[in-house]
Design a protein that fits this description.
Layout: H1 2-7, H2 13-39, E1 43-47, H3 50-64, H4 73-81, E2 87-92, E3 98-100, H5 108-116, E4 124-128, E5 131-141, E6 144-153, H6 163-200, H7 217-266, H8 271-298, E7 305-308, H9 309-326, E8 330-333, E9 340-343, H10 345-362, E10 366-373, E11 377-384, H11 391-396, H12 418-428, E12 432-437, E13 443-450
Parallel strand pairs: 8-10
Antiparallel strand pairs: 1-4, 2-3, 2-6, 4-5, 5-6, 7-9, 10-11, 11-13, 12-13
Helix pairs in contact: 2-6, 3-4, 6-7, 7-8, 8-12, 9-10, 10-12
């Protein structure tokens, strides 16, 4: 049932537009055809068939015999017209008066058709809608000359194109027209939707093309989207410049503060106060260093070189084992694949180190590191057995200065930039980073990268 619901075209705006216009086209086409047949019936003139002439001759013989002459002409027409499942009609040639057997009155169009052909020498057949009229055959009665006709109702489909054929042609034609119409309306909406998704993922250069070609509301919406994207890109660029400028500007006062601390130590100033000032200076120095790293990663300043994974991560894992042991925790590392990759050594190592140290800090007992290599990419997954994060926090944890309620307490010593630096570094390598909460508890962070070189 879920699969059937997914196939339901009414779930999408294009499907609803298509169905509405398709149904409208078909109903309109059917009503137009049947209405034209009802109000504008075309007159067709044909040569009478031998069977129709024989039937007319039988009626003529029946109304001209001696017995039929004893009853009124209308009664004779009625009696002799029934066997042929039609109506017998007589027209006074001189006066044009029409005498018809029992049944509904003739329409004015049918009367005019009969009166026009009473001088016809050879019987013919007239078709108007469902009524078929055959005649005339001349005869005399009571000293007057009459023209004999037979009228018969036939199903409309016998003289008209098959309705199913017309319906199939109408469905195919209206299907194409409705699909093209719905597509023309939804194509720009889908383009805007795709661009909005790219923009929300941090692709600030995303724009909608050819918005000037449309002057309707959708074209205006596209132009407004581009204007919004321009403003967001300017704001983001300004934020990055501000971050870089502040980081650089803070370096100088920090250097002077550290020099002053050195002089204060030499002058035997209160050691406890100096130690506190020194700790705060070191924290500020760490913050500025991370801000500079984040600025460098986001601005794309990098140099790629070839490294083997084992050489690349050797020092990081050694330090991780030491840090985990000091915290009475275990670090379990899979065998490192024999793979050579093209990366920026500093940025990639900092990304993996930040994720690994974060996992060690917030794990309960065990941190695991796993590798996966395919034909197109390689990935490293770092898992811990800590508290984990909510799904919303897993999305926001890579934002600068973000602290999750459980895993990012100030007592941990972090400033909320480690995972932001990791995300910027991974994206600089055209990769992706993702955090998910494990079913058995804890957080799993996967860093995946496209392969640059073959295995060696």
């Amino acid at each position: 049932m879920t699969f059937i619901r997914k196939l339901n075209p009414a779930r999408a705006i294009m499907g609803r537009l298509f169905l509405w216009f398709w149904a409208t086209f078909i109903v309109t086409a059917v009503l137009a055809v049947w209405g034209s047949r009802f109000f504008f019936e075309e007159l067709q003139v044909k040569t009478a068939s031998p069977q129709e002439i024989q039937q007319l001759e039988r009626v003529l013989k029946g109304i001209t015999n001696d017995r039929a002459k004893q009853v009124p002409l209308r009664a004779a027409l009625d009696r002799n017209g029934r066997p042929g499942r039609g109506r017998a009609i007589a027209v006074d040639v001189d006066s044009g008066r029409i005498i018809a057997a029992g049944g509904p009155p003739l329409r004015e169009d049918d009367k005019r058709d009969i009166q026009r052909i009473i001088d016809q020498k050879v019987p013919i057949t007239l078709n108007r809608g469902a009524l078929k009229i055959t005649g005339p055959m001349l005869f005399e009665r009571d000293g007057k000359r009459f023209a004999l006709f037979s009228a018969k109702l036939e199903p409309l489909g016998e003289n008209a194109p098959p309705f199913l054929l017309f319906l199939c042609i109408a469905m195919v034609t209206t299907f194409l027209l409705s699909w093209l119409f719905a597509k023309s309306l939804t194509r720009p909406i889908l383009r805007i939707q795709k661009s909005a998704r790219l923009l929300s993922n941090g692709n600030w250069e995303t724009r909608i093309d050819n918005t000037d070609k449309r002057q309707d509301e959708l074209g205006q919406l596209g132009r407004d989207f581009n204007s919004m994207a321009n403003q967001l890109e300017k704001m983001w660029s300004g934020q990055k410049r501000l971050l870089a400028d502040i980081s650089h500007e803070l370096r100088s006062p920090l250097a002077r503060l550290q020099m002053a601390l050195g002089l204060a130590h030499q002058q035997n100033v209160d050691p406890a106060s100096l130690a506190r000032i020194e700790r705060e200076a070191e924290r500020m120095e760490a913050l500025v260093s991370q801000l500079l790293e984040l600025s460098r990663a986001e601005n794309g300043v990098t140099t790629f070189s070839s490294y083997s994974l084992s050489l690349l991560f050797r020092d990081i894992f050694t330090d991780g084992q030491f840090e985990a042991a000091n915290s009475n925790k275990a670090l379990d590392i899979d065998e490192i694949p024999k793979l050579t990759v093209a990366v920026d050594h500093v940025l990639l190592c900092r990304a993996v180190e930040n994720v690994l140290r974060n996992a060690i800090r917030h794990s309960a007992h065990l941190v695991t590191v796993e590798f996966e290599v395919t034909q197109t990419q390689w990935a490293i997954t770092i898992c811990d057995d800590g508290e984990g994060l909510s799904s919303e926090e897993c999305e926001r944890v890579f934002a600068p200065f973000y602290r999750a309620t459980l895993a990012r307490e100030r007592a941990s010593g972090g400033v909320g930039l480690g995972l932001s630096i990791a995300k910027a570094a991974v994206e600089l390598h055209h990769g992706a980073i993702k955090a998910v909460t494990r079913e058995e508890g804890g957080l799993s962070v996967t860093l995946s990268f496209p392969r640059k070189l073959e295995d060696t």
